[in-house]
C-alpha cells in the first residue's frame, strides 16, 4: 500500500535525515503515484552520485519495512 509505505515512521525519519544532510543544496520528495501502486522517491542534489546515494538510502528503509515487492 503506497500510503502506508509513504507514511511509515522509519521512512519519514530517513527522508528527514536526507533533507537535513542536503540542507540548502538540494531537496527530497516522496510522492505517491496517481496511476501506479508506487511511491516516487525524488532527490535533487549537487551531484548525480549524491542523488543516487540518498534515493537508495530511502529505498533500503522501504525494503527493510517490507514495502517493496
Beta content comes to 15-25%
Number of helices: 3
Number of E-state strands: 2
Mean pLDDT: 94
Report the span from N to C terminus.
11 Å
Q: Please summarize the sheet with the most strands.
A: 2 strands, antiparallel
Dominant shape: globular
Please state the CA-atom Rg, rounded to the nearest Å: 12 Å
Low-pLDDT stretches are: none
Kindly report the spatial arrangement of strands forming the biggest sheet.
1-2
Helicity range: 40-55%
Structural class: alpha+beta
Summarize the helix and strand pattern as letters.
Answer: HHEEH
Structure report:
It is built from three helices and two strands, in the order H-H-E-E-H. The N and C termini lie close together (11 Å). A hairpin with a 6-residue loop joins strand 1 and strand 2. Helix 2 (9-22) runs antiparallel to helix 3 (48-64). 54% of the residues lie in helices and 17% in strands. Strands 1-2 form a two-stranded antiparallel sheet.
